[in-house]
Amino acid sequence: MSQNLMFDVTVDKAAQTVLITRQFAAELALVWEAFTTPDVLDQWWAPKPFQARSKVMEFRVGGRRFYAMVSPDGSERWAIQRYTEIVPMERIKFFNVFADADENPDATGSNWDLTFSEQDGITTVRILVHNESLARMEHLLEGFKLGFTAALDSLDDLLRRQSDR
């Protein structure tokens, strides 16, 4: 991770939200591809040593991504993302919920709103996660912050390798 680039996580329990702002030293098109292409997304979405594995990804409004985070011992934690808004190179909104391997969702999930912008070769990604339940948010919060921070670090490494080509 670059020392001069912004990385901030703000938790607002009253609003049941987590706001993550992260900058990457990469062009917007490369960062957008990392969030929208299953083969690339699977390379960084899970914190190491876990791996992400997309079973389905229909990147369109009304489409879904059904994926697993796979631990080194092979156990899987499934989740569904249902895309509700896509503005190419600007915004992605989806509803995220954990599920079982048969795609049966948990009772509550979270709404994600991602915005992308670039200035002078630095791309800023703003991720607002609104949880349907404060209890769910409090239960997942610490693991989420650590895990998603590690995943974004993996994305940073991936973007650096791709930019160096």
TrEMBL record:
Record's signal peptide: none
Domain Activator of Hsp90 ATPase homologue 1/2-like C-terminal, residue spans: 26-159
Family: Belongs to the AHA1 family.
Any Pfam family the entry gives: AHSA1
Coiled coil: none
InterPro entries the record matches: ASHA1/2-like_C (IPR013538), START-like_dom_sf (IPR023393)
Native source species: Ahniella affigens
Name of the protein in question: ATPase
